[in-house]
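ugh ok fine here u go
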Amino acid sequence: MRPRPVGIPPRRVKPLAAPPISLLLRWRLYQGSAALDAQIYSLKTLRTGTLRDRAVTAAAAITDETGTRTKAGDVRAALALLSGRFVVRESPEEQRNIARIAAYAAALEGRQVHLIEFSEENARATADVSSTTAARLGLSLVFLEDAADLDTRSDAYGADIVVASANRLTRDLLREKIKHGQRSRGARAAISRLGAREAGDRLLWPESLTGIVADADLLFFDPPRPVAVADEMEREKGRVLADQAFVLISGLERDVHYMIDTTTRRIRLSEQGRARIDTYATLFGSA
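structure:
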């Protein structure tokens, strides 16, 4: 290698700038469906690329599946949503399209996404138009009705994208705070050691998720409505008490903790049985 002449600074090579989103989007659509499927596999399964690449691919998938032409500005707006900023468009359809791109991009990155709509009707409509594109991207998408029962909701929250109304999601969030937020760790550990199963012990709410509001204006100007969770909580409390009763019964032995009168068929507790019940009552927090 020839020595560099004294006094001449080394030449700096500028890094190549990322191509603009508009060019990337046109290129994805020009390549065709097979190349798009390969790109989806690379982004979702191999975890390559950036969030920007995922948003561009999601926009291309929307166009390829539904024929709805997406613009580079929609992709930039979706990335702004994912960075925590507000995006305002005059057209509600364009607003929801941006929210869909953001939801797909976040889900392709491995996040669990809640796509929040103002009402159940809007959520149903969004889920209907989003299901084919989500399937094309290899993502599971579930629409959650306001009247869905606990088991249905528990299964639904395991999907990549959950589309639901703000009312439904608010009620479940409040349920999680009430049910699991104030419960002491010691009491839960004691029940676990005794082999009891807490009713509804599956957390509905994922530990981390990305929430995307399709139209924030409607939520801001919506008058507050009461949230009804009392009936559901009372039912779950009854299930917890029933589980505790089964644990207590399974821990008692005949002729040791209780005796059965063969004539009257009545059960009488021994002193050991009373002591065992007092121990369980202390662990369960009962009087």
